[in-house]
Amino acid sequence: MKVEKLEKRGVSEIFQPVLENEAVKLDTEEKSVFEEIQELNEKMDVMNDTVSQKILNMDFEKNVADKLHKELQGYKDDLYFQLVKPLIMDLINMRERMRRAVKHFSKETGEKKVEMLESYVEEIETILENNSIEIYETEKEECDYKVKKQRIVKQIKTSDEKLHGKICNILTNGYIYTEKIKLSFQKK
């Protein structure tokens, strides 16, 4: 009996010639066992095809998910730029104004130099206000410490009870975004 090498999994095709071969005499029980094996092999082939299809589907789904993630990240990056673009443009304009002014800075009088610097401070204030940043000043008269508006830089011990919780020195202005988030000036 010749058995050909099969590419397909299972042995159902190997037993087929045996079952049909008239020269081989099989009793009913052996024939029944061969038929059951053939049935099982056919079921295994179906299961293998199903598993292979499932693996292909999983690979396809993974590729789609990766592609969608990459596309979403692109939208996210572009959205971030669109959000900060007005601020970036304001900073670019300010930088260019400053570059032009630096060329003539040494020729200017002391008073004119101060005016130029003050104009940059005002321009920065405008940029902050355009981006919903409120600038506030704490007056010396309001010397009670407010947790939501101020940050302690240094504590000074005093024996005078009236001075406990009072502000003795104001270093910078305060900055608040949408009346909720306090932005602290970071000293470097």
Automatic annotation (TrEMBL):
A GO molecular-function descriptor: protein homodimerization activity
Protein name: Uncharacterized protein
InterPro entries documented for this protein: GrpE (IPR000740)
GO biological process: protein folding
